[in-house]
């Protein structure tokens, strides 16, 4: 997991809500919560009762780890798509 830098070293523009992050990475806000649940991501403690904020680099690291685990992203490809293609080619080759 990418560690969050100290709050005083973070540019405020690098703090995103789950909704902003989801929009940027083309996932749902629930996916961001899953990343937190899996331990790929932690929010930045800014104090107060506002929304949870996530550091941009930590989000990118969590998204990359999810991609490495085989998440299928149509815009970028993913291992699941490659595996499905290989299976289809193998099946076609056996049928011929």
Q: Report the C-alpha radius of gyration, rounded.
A: 17 Å
> Describe the biggest sheet?
2 strands, antiparallel
Q: Could you give the order of strands across the largest sheet?
A: 1-2
Q: How many strands in all?
A: 2
Mean pLDDT: 80
Helix-strand sequence: EHHEHH
Shape descriptor reads elongated
Number of helices: 4
Structural class designation: mainly alpha
Provide the β-strand percentage band: under 5%
Which terms summarize this structure?
49% helix; mainly alpha; 96 residues; elongated; two-stranded antiparallel ribbon
What does this protein structure show overall?
With 96 residues, this protein is mostly helical. The chain has helices at residues 18-25, 29-37, 56-68, 79-95; strands spanning 15-16, 54-55. A two-stranded antiparallel ribbon has the order 1-2. The model is unreliable at 76-80 (pLDDT under 50).
List the helices and strands and how they pair.
Layout (H helix, E strand, L loop, with lengths): L14 E2 L1 H8 L3 H9 L16 E2 H13 L10 H17 L1
Antiparallel strand pairs: 1-2
């Amino acid at each position: 997991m990418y560690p969050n830098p100290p709050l005083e070293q973070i540019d405020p523009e690098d703090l995103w809500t789950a909704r902003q992050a989801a929009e940027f990475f083309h996932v749902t806000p629930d996916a961001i919560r899953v990343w937190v649940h899996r331990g790929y991501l932690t929010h930045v403690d800014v104090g107060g009762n506002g929304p949870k904020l996530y550091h941009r680099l930590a989000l990118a690291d969590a998204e990359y780890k999810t991609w490495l685990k085989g998440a299928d992203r149509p815009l970028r490809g993913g291992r699941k798509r490659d595996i499905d293609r290989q299976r289809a080619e193998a099946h076609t080759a056996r049928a011929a």
